[in-house]
Structures are given as structure tokens and as C-alpha cells.
Amino acid sequence: MSQENPTLRWGIIGTGLISSWFSRDLSLARDNAQAIHHIQAIGSSSIEKGTKFVESHLPDQKQHPTVYGSYEEVYRDPNVDIIYLGVPHAFHKQACLEAISHGKHVLCEKAFTLNAREAREVFDAAKQKGVFVMEAMWTRFFPLVKTLKKLVHKDKVIGDVVRVFCDFAMNQNFDSLGPDSRLKNPALGAGSLLDIGIYSLTWGLLTLDSEIGDQAQKPKVLATQTLKDGVDVGTSILLAYPNGKQGILTSNVAVKSPAQFCRIEGTSGHVVVQGFVASVPASFTIFTEQQPEGKQYEFERPGRGFYWEADSVALDIAAGKTESDIMPWAETVRVLEILDEIRAQGGAKFPQDQEN
Ligand SMILES: NC(=O)C1=CN([C@@H]2O[C@H](COP(=O)(O)OP(=O)(O)OC[C@H]3O[C@@H](n4cnc5c(N)ncnc54)[C@H](OP(=O)(O)O)[C@@H]3O)[C@@H](O)[C@H]2O)C=CC1
Ligand SMILES: O=C1OC[C@@H](O)[C@H](O)[C@H]1O
């Protein structure tokens, strides 16, 4: 690691599954790290839970993080540079606004907010405070994705992209979940779409178009959802682009997708992306007339791969930026506008949609 690598001091909010994955990855020793990450503080609903989190997931930290029994104390901690939000979607807007009001930078889990209106409110606040804010759509930061985008959009290895299929399905044992689960309670943003369908949509958007945010083309959106007690357990999306390209993108909480979760079809070949699920691509294979047997590209991924987005955030903040070029504010808003349209057509509603 070079001396010039920037250092970020993180305050982790919420001690559930994703915070454990993210914190462990930040603590991983890596050869090609581009930043130094310190977990400075943990914010939890109780000191006991926060302490247990540190013991379970960060036992080897040289300097143990400060554990707070509230989120607000983390926002107030002068030794914290950036807040990582690992709480259910429904709390993202309020937590972002509170962190920003204390002048903290924010990396907020996907889905960034419940709808596009909430996201605009957060970005307006970030703009006023001049702080960095980003949706933690970590998959976009995988080296695999960067390489794939170059091969598809710049080198045109499969000609012009015509169709993209992507599926993220996993059995979440929906029927056995309690009513307070974030995967079951509409007030917590439950449903396959914001939890996992957002990845299928992401693969469609980044492979059907080389541009993102305001520069991207605006596809027509057609969608249907299967609802159980008002929660979508399955969503199917068709993105229809003005020039005829189509994305067929799906999510489901009752079955598991096969490992080949994405196929990108072009005028002179196709690419298959493989991985355990669509959030964690591991390799892809390019099939062309010249290589009908396929050429596979594999990528190393020590730990889980959350450090790629974290390094990118650290470099952006060190450069004085308030948003990422890879996941800019306009792209987060665009994704949420599409998710809003899908829900309007499919029928999944959140109580917060009614708020002004
Ligand atoms: N990038 C990725 O791969 C993944 C991203 N996620 C995203 O992370 C977020 C959190 O998901 P996940 O970690 O699975 O959720 P968990 O239920 O495992 O943890 C959420 C944590 O948020 C805090 N919390 C505050 N209020 C509530 C509430 N009313 N109900 C439940 N938890 C509450 C709790 O921490 P405490 O008690 O300590 O305050 C809880 O442990 C979601 O937005 C999800 O989309 C999730 C999994 C993977
Ligand atoms: O982002 C996610 O990816 C992995 C899933 O297990 C999880 O439910 C989801 O939030």
C-alpha cells in the first residue's frame, strides 16, 4: 500500500447482515488497496448489540471502534468522516438527512431510498452541505464490470447490443418470515424489487447503454408483479429502448437463479455472466463466431468485494468530489424513477409513497 493512499474514518450504522459483510471487508488486508479504512465507530440500537458486533466481526481490529447505543452519537463524533448506512431501505432517507446535517459524508446501502422523491430530497441536502453522498450499489465497482463494459461498449466484441436478460432470484422463505422482517413489511420497503430486482435492473442499464444518469437513453418500462399481502414476491420488467434494444429483467424470492444469471446478446455474439447471484459476478464468457467455444474471463475477489466501492469513495472524497462518476446522483434518481414506474404498473406500494 502506498503512503499517498487516502484514509477514511467510518461510522457504521446498524449491526445487521450487510454491516457485518461491509465491515469485515474494510478490515481485510489487501495487496492492491487504494485507500486506508478505519472503522472508527459503530451505531446500534443498543450498546450490547454494538459490542457483540465488534466482538463477532472485528475481533482483530488494532484499535477497537467506539460503540454507541444510538445513531446520532455517531453522526456527532468528530473523529468520523463518513457514515455507512446498513439499515432497512425505509430508514435511509431520514438517516442520510441526519448524517448530512452533521456535515458527514454518506455511503448508503441500496435501494438508496424508497422512491425517487426521497432521493432528490437527500441529494438537495447533500448539495447544500457540500458533502459526498453515494448509493452503495457495490456491484458497479467490481473490476469485472469495468472490463465487461469496455469490451461490450468500446471494443464492441459482440457487435451492437440487442437484448439483455438478467435474473436475481433467491429463496428468502417468504412465508415463514415474521411481519417485522424488512423482507416482509411494506413499511420497511419489502419486496423482491428493491432488495434484489434492483441488481437485475442495474445489469440491464449498464449493458444496454454506455451512458448513465442524465446522459443515458430513456427506455420505455413495462412491468408486472406478483403480490402477496401487497408485497412483490416476483417482478418482471421489460425495458424497451427507442432503437429497439430490449432488457428482460426479473426478480423472485421463491426460487434460486442458476449461476449464469445474465446474458447479453449482440449482433455478432453474446456474453454470459456467471456468479452465485447477480450482485456478485465472478466471471463472464464471450461467445463469437471466431470463438464459438467461448472465451472466459475470471476475476479474483478476496473477501466479498465491498472494498472496491469503499476505495472509490475514499479517492473521490480525497479529490474533493461530492458524487461518484460510477454511481452519480442522477443515476440513483434514474434507477428509482424506473423502480417507481415498475411499482406503479405492478401494484407494490409503500405507505411512505403518500408522503409529500
Ligand atoms: N449490498 C448488499 O449486498 C446487501 C445490501 N443490503 C441492504 O442493506 C440494508 C440492510 O439490510 P440487512 O443488513 O440485510 O438487514 P438486517 O435486518 O440484517 O439489519 C438491519 C439493521 O438495521 C437496524 N435497524 C434499525 N431499525 C430497524 C428495524 N425496524 N428493523 C430491522 N432493523 C432495523 C438494526 O441494527 P441495530 O439494532 O444495530 O441498530 C438491524 O440489525 C438494506 O437496505 C438492504 O437492501 C442487504 C444485504 C446485502
Ligand atoms: O443486496 C442484497 O444482495 C444479497 C441478498 O441476500 C440481500 O437480500 C440483498 O439485500
From TrEMBL:
<feature type="domain" description="Gfo/Idh/MocA-like oxidoreductase N-terminal">
    <location>
        <begin position="8"/>
        <end position="135"/>
    </location>
</feature>
<dbReference type="InterPro" id="IPR050984">
    <property type="entry name" value="Gfo/Idh/MocA_domain"/>
</dbReference>
<dbReference type="GO" id="GO:0047837">
    <property type="term" value="F:D-xylose 1-dehydrogenase (NADP+) activity"/>
</dbReference>
<feature type="domain" description="GFO/IDH/MocA-like oxidoreductase">
    <location>
        <begin position="146"/>
        <end position="271"/>
    </location>
</feature>
<protein>
    <recommendedName>
        <fullName>D-xylose 1-dehydrogenase (NADP(+), D-xylono-1,5-lactone-forming)</fullName>
        <ecNumber>1.1.1.179</ecNumber>
    </recommendedName>
</protein>
<comment type="similarity">
    <text>Belongs to the Gfo/Idh/MocA family.</text>
</comment>
<dbReference type="InterPro" id="IPR036291">
    <property type="entry name" value="NAD(P)-bd_dom_sf"/>
</dbReference>
<dbReference type="Pfam" id="PF01408">
    <property type="entry name" value="GFO_IDH_MocA"/>
</dbReference>
<dbReference type="InterPro" id="IPR000683">
    <property type="entry name" value="Gfo/Idh/MocA-like_OxRdtase_N"/>
</dbReference>
<dbReference type="Pfam" id="PF22725">
    <property type="entry name" value="GFO_IDH_MocA_C3"/>
</dbReference>
<dbReference type="InterPro" id="IPR055170">
    <property type="entry name" value="GFO_IDH_MocA-like_dom"/>
</dbReference>
<keyword id="KW-0560">Oxidoreductase</keyword>
<dbReference type="GO" id="GO:0000166">
    <property type="term" value="F:nucleotide binding"/>
</dbReference>
